[in-house]
Amino acid sequence: MCGIAGVMYRGNNAFDTGDALIRMLDGCQHRGPDSTGFALYAPEPAGRLKLRFFIDPEASADREGAIASIRGRLTDLGAEIEEEAQAGDNYRVTIHYDGDVQKLSYEMEHAAKVISIGTSLEIVKDIGSAHDVDDRYHVNQFRGTHGLGHVRLATESDVKPEASHPFWATGFADVAIVHNGQITNYWKMRRRLEQRGFEFTTDNDSELIAVYLADKLAQGIKLEDALATSIDDLDGTFSFLVSTKDEIGYAKDRLAAKPMIMYEDDDLVAIASEEVSLNRLFPGRALNTREPAPGTYATWSRSI
User: Fold this and answer.
1) What are residue 269's DSSP bridge partners?
2) What is the Cα–Cα distance from 231 to 213, expressed in whole angstroms?
3) Is 2 an annotated catalytic residue?
4) CB of 153 within 8 A of CB of 33?
5) Do 207 and 144 touch, CB atoms closer than 8 A?
6) Strand pairing partners for 123?
7) Which candidate, 167, 169, 208, 158, places its Cα nearest to that of 186?
8) Do residues 149 and 270 make contact, with C-beta atoms less than 8 angstroms apart?
9) Over 90: is that where the pLDDT of 152 sits?
């Protein structure tokens, strides 16, 4: 049992996306007390990429050495570092880069623990509650267009930051996933993607969903159509949310064992595992919510 949440503000202005997701996740934190994560989107100018890395807290004595190693590898790959900062156990860097993002992703994954890469996307995740993670990384200060959130109950892997959700689509910029459920044909689908040269950094089935969808998008397939095929291609029980730099979407399996509820108006669309998360966005207000039907999918764009 985990909790998922997503929000997209219509239009191109920046909103308090971080604060909205904190409130939504606080409402369903009981579904996942072990760790919390956020996929946050705010556009960068063309040619700029935002990267986040885990820095091992147990290697604090060599923290600067680890960061220096990341800097050196980025420079070797032709990236020009424009901004950098440390927050919690993360190293955040913005680079100017005109090369192959997939090559950069795989090379950096071999050099350090990458959390996310994107022109818009930044993933922040750690053990603890939404408020714990906010205290360490100041998520409430983030302003952007849309984002995803996840609270995790560890059932199949350790309680550690890198096992937390969201997951980005390794090798592809700006695609992130939050997922409640289990993909039972995980290894079969992963081997097919690996045979085509794709790499994975975890054994988490949510990373598979992200790479599967990002591959479809790279082939020119619309996100809505990729979600449609996912319902047939993925075996198991699942409700998941996916986001790109411009869109957010959901898919539910045909058994619909994993809950999902949504609210939509002229200003935003919000989706979560439980209605209490939606109520946290509009305290004291009666909402006209709906539950997506089994075997359905949909997408929304941030442009009106």
Assistant:
1) 8, 264
2) 12
3) yes
4) yes
5) no
6) 39
7) 208
8) no
9) no
**Would the CA dihedral through 229, 192, 216, 259 be positive or negative?**
positive
pTM of the full structure = 0.93
Question: What ranges in 252-297 are assigned the alpha helix state H?
Answer: 275-279
pLDDT, tens only, 99-146: 999 999 999 988 889 999 999 999 999 989 999 999 999 999 999 999
Yes or no: say if 115 and 170 are a contact pair by the CB < 8 Å rule: no
- How far are the Cα atoms of 1, 171, 233, 234 from residue 208, in angstroms, in the given order? 19, 12, 12, 10
Question: Looking at residue 70, which CATH number applies to its domain?
Answer: 3.30.70.60
Among candidate residues 1, 4, 28, 7, the one with its CA nearest the CA of residue 19: 7
Cβ atoms of 180 and 273 within 8 Å: the answer is: yes
Instruction: Assess whether 150 and 268 both reside in one domain.
Output: yes
Which one is catalytic: 1, 2, 27, 142? 2
Q: Which domain holds residue 59?
A: 44-119
Residues 97, 144 within the same domain: no
Half-sphere exposure of 236 (CA within 13 A, CB side): 21
Same domain, yes or no: 249 and 286: yes
Task: Give phi and psi for 88, each to the nearest 5.
Answer: 55, -130
Q: How far apart are CA 129 and CA 258, in angstroms?
A: 21
C-beta separation of 229 from 240 below 8 A: no
Residue 304 has pLDDT above 60, yes or no: no
Domain final residue, candidates 62, 93, 119: 119
